[in-house]
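To fix ideas, we reproduce below a protein record of this kind.
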Amino acid sequence: MTTTLDKATAQANLKVGRARLWAFIDALPPAAFTAKHDPAGWRIQDHLIHLALWEKSFVAMLRREPRFPAMGIDEEWLKSLGNPPNTDDLINDVLFKAHRDKTTAEVLATLRAEQAALDAALDALSDEELQRDFDYFQPHLAPSGASSKPTILRISGYTYEHYDEHIPWMQALL
């Protein structure tokens, strides 16, 4: 994983990562989105809505809005968990159950919309702002001490690096 990243490079990486993701999606026959599931019950479209919702959380963050409510996650519930090592897994389970009944068309429209919203949010910020840490964008949580990692690195981890994590899992369902 990269330890430094500027906005222009991140946006270029995002464009390439999205091209890989959409090449995979566009090659799928319609039935493939829901035909098979893994042992946890995830189908290809469940992976795609998952990717869209995590991007949505970063759109909210970049707008300095609470991330988790944007995804449909109750912040009080999240705070009540403390900080278990599997917080993302617990969130993912809630999201999976909440979006399980969406149609493939709804999932793909949501993914496209959230990707466009993320592009707009990134375009509105300077490289200097994107090098700031999490607390700059989530002041309602400050001082969280969440990370001194630049926000642009967090975004890369939940966008194009996230796609590359999920694509093999989706390919295994074909």
About this structure: The chain has a mean pLDDT of 91. The radius of gyration is 16 Å. The CA atoms of residues 81 and 87 lie 8 Å apart. DSSP finds ten helices and no strands in the chain.
